[in-house]
Amino acid sequence: MATLIRRGLVHEGLSADVATTGEEAIDAAADADVDVIVLDVMLPGIDGFETCRRLRSAGVWAPVLMLSARDAVEDRVAGLDAGGDDYLVKPFAFTELLARLRALTRRGGNDRAAPLCVGDLRLDPATREVMRGSIPVILSATEFALLETFMRRPGEVLSRLHLLDNAWDVAYENRSNVVDVYVGRLRRKIDEPFGRCSLETVRGAGYRLRP
Amino acid sequence: MATLIRRGLVHEGLSADVATTGEEAIDAAADADVDVIVLDVMLPGIDGFETCRRLRSAGVWAPVLMLSARDAVEDRVAGLDAGGDDYLVKPFAFTELLARLRALTRRGGNDRAAPLCVGDLRLDPATREVMRGSIPVILSATEFALLETFMRRPGEVLSRLHLLDNAWDVAYENRSNVVDVYVGRLRRKIDEPFGRCSLETVRGAGYRLRP
DNA sequence: ATGACGCTGTCACGTCCTTGTCATCCGTGC
DNA sequence: GCACGGATGACAAGGACGTGACAGCGTCAT
Q1: Cβ separation of A81 and B204 shorter than 8 Å?
Q2: CA–C1' distance A181–C30 (Å)?
Q3: Neighbour tally for A168: CB within 10 Å
Q4: Residues B122 and B94 grouped into a single domain
Q5: In whole angstroms, what is the distance from residue B128 CA to residue B133 CA?
Q6: pLDDT band at A183 (very low <50, low <70, confident <90, very high)
Q7: Residue B111 domain-assigned?
Q8: Which domain holds residue B60?
């Protein structure tokens, strides 16, 4: 069935990858940047619902269209609850699958605050999680706000004043070196443990996050 | 809001009519042969609940999705009692509205709102039952509303303000620590007896329900 | 009526973390 | 060597959070 669908999609000029188990799908979706996922409920090993849940908790927010042979109400509800965006019952017309996939991709996924990524640094404003690669980093509120400011303008040199305006509540007028101190604290958490150097000092101008 | 939803639905290739009052909605639904009704609770004149009841007694059996600005328990119960088939709390993702409308139109019958599951926590808005695994948990009204707010956005960090807006009826002055107190009470019921730690504190930001 | 009881929101207090400042140290350009 | 901008360790003050106690309120059975 998966191969059949894949052949049909390729025939439409789209590209598609096939995974035969839930684990495989999660790995593939985490690696590749997929636009939409077609997920059969009946899978060897972990089933489609669980796969969908794990995809979501793995940070994959691509729309999921669930395929099921059964038309039971519980299945549909379970599918939607597991984080599915649409539900199609087998047997179906291939044109309908296409139409639904088009509808799903047109919407551009769930409107959830998108995580910011710069290199292997990832910052999720919604969950307030920060990851260097696959290792979570614990930041305080101010450190988080500062890093977010940097990640919204990767590569740009940001002045101390700009950083103060964006990561601190009130604009400090006085000659404070808070920014310097916090850049140092940030470096100690996101760079030093990993031997990196993403936060650069630009003498006389400010700091920049290397893209 | 109604115009916004209508535009979104039309964009999906569906057709939609807008009514701005309860009376208008009843007249329109009685004339046209509608598939599903989206009904805001807050309406000028007769409110959403009463509108729903009158729709039913007028012989309109199309599924009704109630829209509520607040997540108050009373609203939900009232909405379901008035003959609503599902309810959605503002603000919501448009994709979720679509998914629920699809689910409503696909099934012909009247099903109640689907239970929410996060890990082995289960919360059924319709029956007001909460289970940790297979063990039922007894919650007060406020505790229930708070937990439901968390379970609608698992993994996300929710600010005290967001929690107040969604689980409490009126907006409190932010000097109060009700949220802290109730998070504590919730922890004592859903976490401590089970040695879990699903409700995390995010210093300087709020709380989050671990997915 | 009355008392018991549970729910709700407030408050005070203790603990621990965060925050911003300061003094000092370091490297670079003159 | 010297001046300057930046880095860093130490630290005090304040803030954020958790918790127990408590009063007001409504419900319910007596």
Answers
A1: no
A2: 28
A3: 17
A4: no
A5: 16
A6: very high
A7: no
A8: 2-106
Answer whether residue B183 shows pLDDT above 80. Answer: yes
* CB contact A206 to B (< 8 Å): no
Confidence of residue A184 (pLDDT cuts 50, 70, 90): very high
Is residue B106 scored above 60 in pLDDT? no
Question: Alpha-carbon distance A73 to B211, whole Å?
Answer: 25
User: Considering the domain boundaries, does residue A111 fall inside one?
Assistant: no
CATH number at residue B12: 3.40.50.2300
Query: d(Cα A62, Cα A43) in Å, to the nearest integer?
Result: 20
- Residue whose token pair is 């969950």: A127
Q: How many domains, chain B? A: 2
The CA distance from B58 to B73, in Å, is 27
Number of neighbours of residue A197 by Cβ within 10 angstroms: 10
What is the C-alpha to C-alpha distance for residues B167 and A54, in angstroms, rounded to an integer? Answer: 28
Asked whether residue B26 falls in the same domain as residue B67, the answer is: yes
- Shared domain for A67 and A149, answered yes or no, is no
Footprint of strand C on the protein (CB under 7 A): A 140-143, 168, 172, 174, 176-178, 181-182; B 138, 140-143, 168, 172-173, 175-178, 181-182, 203-204
How many cross-chain Cβ pairs, A to B, lie less than 8 Å apart?
60
Q: Quick one: DSSP state of residue B128?
A: T
Query: In this complex, is the C-beta atom of B115 within 8 Å of any C-beta atom belonging to chain A?
Result: yes
> B156 and A126: CB-CB below 8 Å?
yes
How near does any CA of chain B get to the CA of A22, in Å?
A: 18
Indicate yes or no: CB of A107 within 8 angstroms of CB of B93: no
Give burial (CB, 10 Å; 0-12/13-18/19+) of B107: middle
pLDDT tens digits for range A25-68: 888 887 666 778 998 888 888 888 888 888 877 777 777 888 87
CB A55 within 8 A of CB A26: yes
Shared domain check, B91 and B20: yes
Domain stop point among A48, A79, A106: A106
Residue B34 token pair: 């509608």
Task: Tell me the CA distances in angstroms from A39 to A55, A146, B127, one per residue in order.
Answer: 11, 39, 30
Last residue in a domain, options B106, B124, B155: B106
Asked if residues A51 and A78 have their Cβ atoms less than 8 Å apart, the reply is no
Residues of chain B with pLDDT > 90, as a percent, come to 19
* Spatial distance between the Cα atoms of A182 and A142, rounded to a whole number of angstroms: 8
